[in-house]
Specification:
The chain is mainly alpha-helical and about 300 residues long. α8 (about 265-280) links the parallel β2 and β3 (about 285-290). About 60% of the residues lie in helices and about 10% in strands. α1 runs antiparallel to α4 (about 120-140), α2 runs antiparallel to α3 and α4 (about 120-140) packs antiparallel against α5 (about 150-175).
C-alpha cells in the first residue's frame, strides 16, 4: 500500500493510464479493422475485450479526477469522492464478465461453420497488439501495487497481451494447416482468461465496499502493538477498513492507565499511537476515543 492518502494512489499514475488508454484504442482500431477484413472472431473478440478495457481505463481516469474534488469537514461527503474509484473498478469487472459471455457464445457458434480466414493479416494484427500491450504493461507495472484501478488496468493489459498471443498461435495454425476452427478456439481461450481476473477484481471491490479489514493488516498484531504503547491499558471496538486503494482507515476505543489524568498525558498517548500505526501499519487516518478504566461498562452492549 502506498502513502498517497490525500487523493488516493491512482492520482500519481493518471498520466500513464492516459497513455495506456491511447495505446489500447490504437490496438482496438487495428484489430477491429483486420477482423472486419478477414472475418476473424479471435481478433473481433480481442477487439471487444480491448473496448471493455479501454472503457475501464477511461472510468479509472474519470474516477481519479472526480476523487480529487473537495470533501472536507462540513460537507455531506467527509471523505470526498474517493469511493468513485472503487465503483468504477466494480463496473469494469462487470463489463469484463459480460464480454466473456459474449465471446464464448459466438465462439461456440463458429465451431459448426468456420469461414475461410486470411492467416497472414491476422498474424500481423496479433503481433502489433502484443508489442503495444507489452509497452502498456511496463508503464503500469509500478502502479499496479498501489491503486485498485491501476491494478485493474494492468490485469486488463496483461489479458490483452495473452489474447494477442492466442491470436498469434491461431493465425500460425491457420497458415500451416488451414484449420480455421483454431480461430474459434483462440476466442474461447480469450474468454477463459477474462473471467478469473474479472472475478478477482470484483472480489477486491466487494472487500472495500463491505469494509473488510485490508489483507495486509493483521488485526491481532495491530491490537498487540496498540496494547504495547505506554499508557494504554486496553483496546476495544477496533476497526480497520479501506476508503479506496492506498487509503486505509482505523478507529478504536483506547482505555488508558489511571496515570493519564490530563490533556497533556492524553496528547502524548495519542502521538505514540499514531506514530506506531503510521510506522508499522501504514495507517495515517486513525481515530481514537480515549477512555478511563471502567468507561466500557457504561457503553451499550452492542459496542463491546
Amino acid at each position: 500500500m502506498g502513502h498517497d492518502h490525500a487523493h488516493g494512489a491512482g492520482v500519481r499514475h493518471r498520466g500513464r493510464l492516459a497513455i495506456v488508454l491511447g495505446l489500447s484504442v490504437s490496438i482496438l482500431v487495428v484489430e477491429a479493422t483486420v477482423a472486419w477484413i478477414t472475418g476473424s472472431l479471435a481478433l473481433l473478440a480481442d477487439a471487444g475485450h480491448l473496448l471493455g478495457d479501454s472503457f475501464g481505463i477511461l472510468m479509472a481516469l474519470a474516477a481519479i479526477t472526480v476523487a480529487q474534488r473537495g470533501g472536507g469537514p462540513g460537507t455531506r461527503r467527509t471523505f470526498g469522492y474517493h469511493r468513485t474509484e472503487v465503483i468504477a473498478a466494480g463496473l469494469n469487472g462487470l463489463v469484463l464478465l459480460g464480454l466473456a459471455v459474449w465471446v464464448a457464445y459466438n465462439a461456440i457458434r463458429r465451431f459448426g461453420d468456420s469461414p475461410h480466414l486470411e492467416g497472414g493479416l491476422i498474424l500481423l494484427a496479433g503481433g502489433i497488439g502484443l508489442v503495444i500491450n507489452v509497452i502498456g504493461l511496463l508503464l503500469l507495472r509500478g502502479g499496479a501495487q498501489e491503486s485498485l484501478n491501476v491494478r485493474g488496468a494492468y490485469l486488463e493489459v496483461l489479458g490483452d497481451a495473452l489474447g494477442s498471443i492466442a491470436v498469434l498461435i491461431s493465425a500460425t495454425v491457420i497458415l500451416l494447416t488451414d484449420w480455421y476452427a483454431a480461430d474459434a478456439v483462440a476466442s474461447l481461450v480469450i474468454a477463459a482468461m477474462i473471467v478469473p481476473r474479472a472475478i478477482s477484481l470484483l472480489r477486491e471491490v466487494g472487500d472495500v465496499l463491505l469494509e473488510a479489514t485490508p489483507r495486509d493488516v493483521d488485526l491481532v498484531e495491530l491490537r498487540t502493538h496498540i496494547l504495547g504503547v505506554p499508557g494504554v491499558r486496553d483496546v476495544h471496538d477496533l476497526h480497520v477498513w479501506t476508503i479506496t486503494s492506498g487509503m486505509p482507515v482505523m478507529s478504536a476505543h483506547v482505555v488508558v492507565e489511571d496515570s493519564v489524568t490530563g490533556m497533556a498525558e492524553a496528547h502524548s498517548v495519542l502521538d505514540r499511537l499514531r506514530g506506531c500505526l503510521s510506522e508499522h501499519f501504514d495507517v495515517e487516518h486513525s481515530t481514537f476515543q480515549i477512555e478511563p478504566a471502567g468507561h466500557v461498562d457504561s457503553e451499550h452492549e452492542m459496542h463491546r
